[in-house]
Specification:
By secondary structure, the chain is mainly α. It has 21 helices and no strands. Helix content is 70%, strand content 0%.
């Protein structure tokens, strides 16, 4: 019996040893797979960042080299990441796995685009060049030369010449960049823009009290740097990242009950571009009287500073000359707003920028304004009815998307504003949810697949159909996501 017991004990010990060794090998394999995942996604983030910056600021030769070899490296990295995703990574949550799948699609489209259109093409930095020129004029106090507006016979502004159409205070804010040569200033501008956009995405996550883990940071960095509107924003040197940062920052501060700083950020965003004004009724709905008082105070302070720096005549010229000239928008395919889509439906076709008609019947402009106004009113009523179920912060995030839909001009690069709301809505989903409307909107907007398909098509009916995809999807996302759960974190009631 002792021998049998001894033998049996030995066998048992052997089995335990084998099982322990197997568990150890499995754990080691898991650690190796996890390390590989981090290496692959870190490399994809580096490639996406290099591709975006080289495409905007690099020399044609550098961009051509990056486009070719970047695509080869990207295919290899994306293939490994896809295999890992299909096999399943145990340390990724369900929502993170779904997000990674969307980001892989964005990454693939972005890298293919960098290969097909290598380097800075015609028009690179044109918006920044306008900002830079106006900043020089403001520094030399030539305020009468700020607004040179080439107009069509019907009073619409000809946007092909990239005129300055922002409030006068923006020219003052451009002064520090004019101390550098224009090329260096352009590179610095884009670098700051990327940092502001990344900070905005971090704050969007913070609105739901989501902790930014290393794996989530890698996934989001690849997705953000592969987001087509951001790539186009850097290419033109646009100001969208600044508006995104100030608007999101205002919401983030409001969720933490920092009323005066929140109002300052929102006032600054308004004085750079008037778009945020559409969200002011939300504060009335939620009876945020202290915030509204702070906002009015900051607006007066910033307006006073602008008048002191630029003069009163520039303010009057902006209100009396610039705003009326851009209020009718532009019925061209790069303008992805509901406003433009209605005009194109009435005109029966989608125009390229160089084909835009010299005159548009007044009724076309009136109808597009009426549709935008009615759409705005309907969504605002829905916001008002849902004010008891949710805080103002969630509605502010959705209002960013609404601003893109009803604005007279929402160029493709302006949809960089969609980044914070898309991330916020993803963060607010339950772990088991699958939001197909959100996913579709993110993919269509982030790849600009509808815009590129429109450029390749010559059929007017198909072009009209494609032109309506982005504004209609964005509007649908706003309308159907207004009802929703309140913020899940500790800041929900304060928001």
């Amino acid at each position: 019996m002792l021998m049998e017991g001894g033998v049996l004990s030995g066998e048992q010990r052997g089995r335990n040893g084998v099982e322990g060794a197997g568990a150890g090998l499995a754990a080691e394999a898991g650690r190796g797979s996890k390390a590989l995942w981090y290496a692959v996604w870190g490399a994809m983030g580096a490639v996406a960042c290099a591709s975006a910056l080289v495409a905007a600021n690099g020399s044609p030769s550098a961009a051509s080299i990056e486009g070719t070899y970047g695509l080869l490296l990207s295919v290899l990295l994306a293939a490994v990441a896809t295999v890992q995703l299909v096999r399943g990574m145990s340390f990724l949550l369900g929502k993170e796995t779904a997000l990674a799948a969307v980001v892989l699609v964005l990454f693939g489209f972005a890298q293919l685009g960098h290969y097909l259109i290598p380097g800075p093409s015609a028009g690179a930095g044109v918006d920044f060049a306008t900002y830079y020129t106006v900043g020089h004029e403001a520094a030399q106090r030539r305020f009468g030369e700020m607004y040179h507006l080439p107009l069509y016979p019907d009073g619409r502004i000809d946007l092909r010449t990239f005129p300055f159409i922002y409030p006068p205070l923006f020219a003052v804010l451009m002064r520090p960049f004019t101390f550098l040569p224009v090329r260096n200033a352009y590179f610095l501008w884009n670098g700051v823009d990327v940092m502001l956009i990344v900070a905005s995405c971090w704050m969007a996550l913070g609105l739901g009290d989501k902790k930014l883990s290393c794996r989530l940071a890698l996934i989001l960095s690849v997705g953000v740097l592969s987001f087509y509107p951001l790539i186009h924003e850097l290419h033109l040197g646009q100001v969208g990242g600044w508006i995104l940062f100030l608007w999101t920052g205002s919401s983030w501060l409001l969720a933490r009950n920092r009323i005066w700083f929140s109002a300052l950020c929102f006032a600054a965003a308004t004085m750079i571009k008037l778009t945020p004004v559409i969200a002011i009724p939300l504060f009335v709905f939620h009876r945020r009287w202290k915030w509204l008082a702070a906002y009015c105070c900051w607006m007066l302070v910033l307006l006073g500073f602008s008048v002191w720096q630029v003069g009163w005549a520039a303010q009057k010229e902006f209100v009396g000359k610039v705003l009326p000239s851009i209020s009718c928008g532009a019925p061209v395919f790069q303008n992805a707003s509901l406003f433009s889509f209605v005009q194109e439906l009435l005109l029966g076709r989608v125009f390229r920028a160089e084909e835009q008609p010299l005159t548009i019947a007044p009724v076309v402009c009136m109808v597009s304004k009426a549709v935008a106004l009615v759409t705005y009113a309907i969504v605002m009523v829905r916001f008002y009815l849902g004010r008891r179920e949710q805080g103002v912060v969630r509605q502010l995030m959705l209002a960013m998307l609404l601003s893109l839909v009803i604005s007279p001009i929402s160029w493709w690069q302006h949809y960089v504003l969609a980044l914070a709301p898309l991330i916020f809505l993803w963060d607010m989903m339950r772990e088991t949810d699958r939001d197909w409307l959100l996913t579709t909107t993110a993919l269509v907007t982030g790849t600009n697949v509808a815009g590129f398909a429109l450029m390749l098509s010559s059929n007017h009916a198909i072009q009209l159909l494609l032109e309506g995809v982005v504004p209609c999807l964005t509007l649908g996302l706003v309308y159907f996501r207004i009802p929703g759960e309140e913020l899940v974190g500790g800041n929900s009631k304060g928001a």
